Amino acid sequence: MIYVNNEAWLHRVMSHSVSGREDSFRNGIQARDCKCVISGVVNRRPADNWTAFEVAHIFSLELENLWIEFNYGRWVDDIADDAGISKINSCQNEFLLQSTAHQMFDQYLLSVNPDGGHKITVFDIDIFGFDGRVLDPVCRNPEDPHRISDQLLRWHFRQSVLANVIGAGEPIFEHDFPPGTDIMKEIREEPYAQERFERELAARFRETKGKEEGCPTKEFLMAS
Description:
This protein is mainly α. 33% of the residues lie in helices and 8% in strands.
């Protein structure tokens, strides 16, 4: 059940595991799921070939400041509080998706309702046939300590309702920029330009953290 309140819809961009510290979590998700848990398509290729399959984060990495502020880590129990690792990188905050499903999930165009039998809802024209499917049990086995968190799924579903039902649909962020595009110009002309810029900047910092001491990439600075 979704209750009406003053909760804000949080803009997000495509999320990816990018740093070495996240590699083990990515590998753990690939080993746990072995398939897109939305479409059910199994990766039948060699174990080192995951083309078109991506690890998606339920709570986006570039929103980590809000994760910390509102203590969403309390919904993760497979990493100890004193482990020295951010719980946002937990396997309980990740599952394996095909690229198309990942993009839709990050844009709040697709979500999973853990209180409705883990049914998938598509908040768009359902051209891929995802709507009404059930999230694959492989990622939510109650006996698996690294199963995804229903609380985090519930948060994402609520956000999707806020973005698409209460708000009558929110802008979809473009992410496929052809070579030579003035990316910053494109972003400035979008709705929610400031929020998009902040999310993109946070994502760039994550990509370079540990490599250039948290500085944005050269390409990003040149584009801005």
